[in-house]
Structure prediction request, 196 residues.
Amino acid sequence: MLKRLEQYGIRLGLETTHQVLASLGNPESRFPQVLVAGTNGKGSTAVQVASMVAAAGYRTGLYTSPHLEEITERIRVDGVAVSTETFGATLARVVDAAEKTLGHLPTYFEAVTAAAFLIFAEEEVDLAVMEVGLGGRLDATNACQPVVSLITEIGLEHRQFLGETLSSIAREKAGILRQGRPSWAWVEREEAWKAI
Prediction:
């Protein structure tokens, strides 16, 4: 099934993800999230935050990308990757919902992200830590309303999607911030910091 979705490449924007999640009963609204964006250190930061939350005794979800060996590594509950069976069945539900709701397939990343939200809701996690895939503002992970947003160091990356300057890239990553909710940024480059 994932091979079918790879042909859609990268599609920045939240419309597809919002519609698919709505058709699945908005699973992202059933648990709080921490959203982590950045260029360098976002994966490590996400893993560390999830580990701290789990060590405090909370049922914890962790969503990261890319994976090293198996796609199931991207979705973890209490530090353990979901089973191939759970992932496959959930992904099939996501793709079916997208086809019925939208009349087209989601991208690979949109589908896997929606599957993560659905798995975390059904596993009744107390908190999920979600690593942004690309950018922030228009990334599928940003379909949630995080209780905390974190931004790690920002560098020049994905310029064809995020812009040519540190400022434009930083603004895209700052799209995960929510008014009235806590956020932290560990950004050393002044141009990026000012943009955030």
Observations:
- The longest helix spans residues 84-102.
- The mean pLDDT is 91.
